[in-house]
Structures are given as C-alpha cells and as structure tokens.
C-alpha cells in the first residue's frame, strides 16, 4: 500500500483497494495499473506531496519523466491508470478534484503493428518440426496450431478447459474466454481438430471436462500434470520450439495471431470477418495485424535500380 494512501486515512485506503477490486475485472490490467499507481505515488511522495496536494503540474512532470524511460504506449497506460484511479477517489470524496484530468499524454498513432509474422511456409515448418512422439510434443503442436487458426490471444488459449473444445454434429467448436468476461465461439479448423484430437487421446484428459485443456509437463518424463499452462509457460514453449525449428528468436505467442490473420487475408478473407474471428472491437485493430502489403512494398522498393 503506497504511503501517500495510508497517510490519507482509512477512507482513502479502502477506496484505493476498492478501485482494483470493484472497477477492474481483468487480472492483467489490474496488475499493470497497480504497478503504475505505486510508482506514481512513490514518485510524488518523494517530493513531499500529500494526496490532496497533487496537482496537474506534478502529473505533467511525471509524464515527462516517464517519457525518458518508457515508450509512448507505456506512458499512456500509466497516465490512464492515474486518471482512472483519481476519478474513483473523487467520486468517493477522498480528494476534491482529479489532477490528471487535464494532463495530455504523448501522441501515439499506430498504422502497422510491430509483431513479427511468419509466412505460411514458415508456420508449417514450425508445426512440422515438433516431435509428436510424446504427449508433450502433441500438446505443443496443438497449442501453436490453435493460436494460428483461431487468431486467439495466448491468455484465452491457456484459460481453455477441456469442455471448451466441443462438437455439434459434424462440426467442432472452440469456446474462447476473451477479455472483459466475453466468450467467443469459433469453428475449429480441420487441422486444429486433428491436432487437438491427437493431443487429447495421448494426454488422457478427454474425460476431465472441467480440467485445463493445456497442462504442464511432469519434468522431462513426456507426461502431463493436472496443472494448467500459464502465459509464461506458453511463451517458453514457443521460444523453445522456434529455436529448434531454426526461426527468428523475436517470435512470440502474439506472432501466431498476426500470422493467422495475414494468411486468412492473403487467401481472400475480409477484414470484417477477420475482426469477428479475432474478437476485435474495431476493424482498425485487425488491420494492424495485416501484413499482406509487405511483399508488395518490397517489390516496389526493388524497382530502384542504381
């Protein structure tokens, strides 16, 4: 608990805790906002300011300080956390006004995402390079395959339970637990079905409907435990498999979201449908994952003959 909050009294302390429990439902957002607010309140506390004495000029100075150590998106996130928390403190009558309300963050416009993307051939090379003689190998292939063909976030994939992969008639479906408590149900690509069926048969968890779909390994035995994979586990798996396949070390879990969207658009898919599959609120967000113009741009650059 930041000292500025404690010094402001019990009402401020309770309201500060309520901000994270009542206002923010997403665990990752809660963690990020908590770090941002702890850092800000420690910075202002070092300058002998009480909670009531924090003014816009101090918030603006803190933003300028953050610009020297963080990227603009991170600075904007920190400012959003400060602004949202002080709004909550104002409505709870802990402070009279929000000192961050009038402070502008850095300008940041993104028209193309920075996530590295695999070509269709490289994605297939990665999947084919995985040794599937053990349940762990089958798990890793199914994990990566699912992220590619459903455009799913890694947090949604690691949150899957066995019952979230289900069949209606001859069609198989994936029920993804997305941000904001929303569910997104997408048809399973036939290659995902093959990979998941092989994994479930080898892993032996097909009958455990309430258990996690993707589970951690038991040491180097090749067998699976009952504990679910975390996002960090999934990243380590991806890094290990990417290195073994001889691909770029820059690749990450988010790569497969961008790879799947790009492959879909290259084969005649539309941004609007890709938006629905990916669960994006806006097609502008989906467009950030579109790398179909990369090859065209390279061809045009090569026209410069000197």
Automatic annotation (TrEMBL):
Q: Which GO terms describe its molecular function?
A: DNA binding
Key word Cytoplasm present: no
Looking at the keywords, is Ligase present?
Answer: no
Keywords (alphabetical) are: DNA integration, DNA recombination, DNA-binding
Indicate the segments annotated as coiled coil, or none if absent.
none
Residue span(s) of domain Core-binding (CB): 11-90
Source domain of life: Bacteria
**What are the Tyr recombinase domain coordinates in residue numbering?**
113-303
InterPro entries xref list: CB, DNA_brk_join_enz, Integrase-like_cat_sf, Integrase_catalytic, Integrase_recombinase_N, Integrase_SAM-like_N, Tyrosine_recombinase_XerCD
GO BP annotations of the record are:
DNA integration; DNA recombination
Entry's family note = Belongs to the 'phage' integrase family.
Q: What is this protein called?
A: Tyrosine recombinase XerD
